[in-house]
Each structure stands twice: as C-alpha cells, then as structure tokens.
Amino acid sequence: MRRIIYLSAARKALDPAEIDEILQISRANNARDGITGLLAYHDGCFFQTVEGPDSKLDALMTRVRRDSRHGNMLILSDKPAIQPAFDGWHMALVQKSELAGLMDDSILPLKALAAQPGKLTEDTTVNALFTSFLRGFRDMVV
Ligand code: FAD
Fold first, then answer.
1. Ligand 1 centroid to 36 CA: how many Å?
2. How does pLDDT run across 64-75, given as a tens digit for each residue?
3. Which end of the chain is more exposed for a tag (fewer CB within 10 A), N or C?
C-alpha cells in the first residue's frame, strides 16, 4: 500500500456543480479501486491524499495529471504506507453552504478542521502537510 499527497491549482474558479462532478466520479472510482483519501478545495487550491494499491494509484495519478481542470501539481509525499489514514473517502470544503444540497457525513467543513489542527487522521505526515496547506490561506486560523 502506498500514499500520495499533493497540491494543485484549479485552472479557473470551480463552482459547486463542478466540484460535485469531481467528487462523484472520485467516490465511485476510488471505491471500485480500493482507494481512500481526502480531497480539500479552497480558494482555487486542491490538497489531496490518496492511498491504496500501487497499480491502482498509478492509474489514478495518470488520469488526475491529465485532468485539465487543474495544473501545477506538486507532490508533497509519495511513500509506502502501513495502514490507511482514512477509513472512507472524505471531501473537505470551506463552506457548507457552497454544497448545501450535497452535504453528507463524508463532506467536512474546512473551517471546522482548521479549528482542530492535527485531528484529521492519526497519520502525522498527513496532519502536518494539511495544517501547512491551511496556513497558506489568510482566512484559515491554524
Ligand atoms: P473521463 O471522464 O472520460 O475523462 C477523460 C479525460 O478528461 C481525462 O483526462 C479526465 O481527467 C478529463 N476530464 C474529465 N472531465 C473533465 C472536465 N469536466 N473538464 C476537464 N477535463 C475533464 N478521479 C478519481 O477517480 N479519483 C480521485 O481521487 C480523483 N481526484 C481528483 C482530484 C482533482 C483535484 C481533480 C481535478 C480530479 C480528480 N479526479 C479523480 C478526476 C479524474 O481526473 C478523472 O476525471 C476521473 O478519474 C475520470 O477519468 P476517466 O479518464 O475515467 O474519465
């Protein structure tokens, strides 16, 4: 099992319907491929953690790299992992209201996560990198 953590930049501001499109396809594909993780989107920036079997992760990253909705991908970490940091698929977003119709237990408000730095998962690397992602935004207090 392997875990990849990366940052990327949206090519344009994405509206809730476009985020939802990414979310829905990701959930379906990741469940099929045994991949878990987190996708956070705020102010034009993505932070994603994906973890799962090597070959499935390679296939996912090939698709994601080709996706013209974002670019400037920066891999923060790509390492073997002993156990998953996420039990299920999670999506973190800054404002609940942005996805009011789409909210469920797997969509977490980013501000709530920002108020609890280090509580995202038990994995210290993911927590540290996620906290540093949040610190990049003036409206996030970490
Ligand atoms: P298709 O939908 O046939 O895609 C064909 C090609 O077009 C691919 O290159 C695809 O990347 C691109 N594409 C699809 N829709 C659009 C669009 N509206 N605008 C521009 N290009 C488009 N997918 C996952 O399965 N799991 C993930 O965890 C995941 N995370 C993502 C994170 C980010 C930040 C982004 C931007 C996308 C993510 N995706 C994820 C979506 C992924 O890039 C693919 O679109 C998706 O996996 C379907 O790929 P496909 O080639 O099977 O299908």
1. 16
2. 999 999 999 999
3. N
